[in-house]
Amino acid sequence: MLIDSHAHIDDERFDKDRDKLIESLKKDGIDLIINVGADLQSSIKSVSLSEDYENIYAAVGVHPHSAKEMDDSTIEVLKSLANREKVVAIGEIGLDFYYDNSPRNIQRQRFVEQLNLAKKVDLPVIIHSRDAAGETFDILKEAQDGNLEGVLHCYSGSVEMALEYIKLGFYISLAGPVTFKNARVPKEVAKAVPLDRLLIETDSPYLTPEPYRGKRNEPLYVRHVAGTIAELRGIPFEEVANRTSENTKKLFRIK
Ligand code: NI
């Protein structure tokens, strides 16, 4: 069985077939999905999906794109959502200096506040980082007091940086880009990351893997991420599926 450790099926692109899709996951070999919030509204939707379906768990948090929409009450709302039974992480949170949809100083401030929240409520974090590798690392290193756990979602950095994050206590998650023909660095990362530190995900509806590029992504396609990693490492598909599922359950403390 596979786990999709990061999806956004609250997205409106799933409005027409969400229930059907969730109900067919088990028979398609997908054990669980973690549905990840990106702002308050999607965090609330993630929690309600997790309460409606046994095979969905939720993360709550505000993405750097939406950091500018946060005010001081937002943290309080996230805190109360974090107490719900099936909320397993604070995320996705981080820095995005590629799009710069929120001013960088606000991104940094809200990222740090949400890291502190994660420590306060004793949950791991799901990190989004784009064109901000050095600063993301510095902020996480500063925040790491022995009580912070988490994953670098859709990891797009170098092998060296991945190993530094692992040393800091984090997991590395790979998504659709590892299947792209010209994706040299993600393929190197897929080979180099120790199997006990690797997660897989789709980031549905975004980042659709080969051979479905151009279509809407869905949790089912996580098998193509697993298949590519198995091929690159020269190990059985089942080993990638089992180990990444174990890692996901361990990080997010799912029984
Ligand atoms: Ni995402």
Structural description of this entry:
This protein is α/β, with parallel strands linked by helices and 255 residues long. The protein has one domain: TIM Barrel (Alpha-Beta Barrel), CATH 3.20.20.140. 41% of the residues lie in helices and 18% in strands. It is built from 9 helices and 8 strands. It has an 8-stranded parallel β-sheet with strand order 1-2-3-4-5-6-7-8. α3 links the parallel β3 (56-60) and β4. It is globular. The relative contact order is 0.14. Nickel (II) ion (NI) is lined by residues 6, 8, 36, 92, 203. Nickel (II) ion binds next to loops.
Structural class: alpha/beta
**Fraction in beta strands:** 15-25%
Q: What helical percentage do the residues reach?
A: 40-55%
Global Rg:
17 Å
Number of strand segments: 8
The ligands found in this model are: nickel (II) ion
The CATH level-2 architecture is identified as Alpha-Beta Barrel
For the termini, the CA-CA separation is: 15 Å
Summarize this entry quickly:
This protein is of the alpha/beta class and 255 residues long. The chain is 41% helix and 18% strand.
Please name the defining characteristics of this protein.
255 residues, alpha/beta, TIM Barrel, globular, binds nickel (II) ion
Task: Indicate the topology.
Blueprint: E1 2-7, H1 18-24, E2 30-36, H2 40-52, E3 56-60, H3 72-82, E4 87-96, H4 104-121, E5 125-130, H5 133-143, E6 150-152, H6 159-167, E7 170-174, H7 184-192, E8 198-200, H8 222-233, H9 237-251
The structure holds nickel (II) ion.
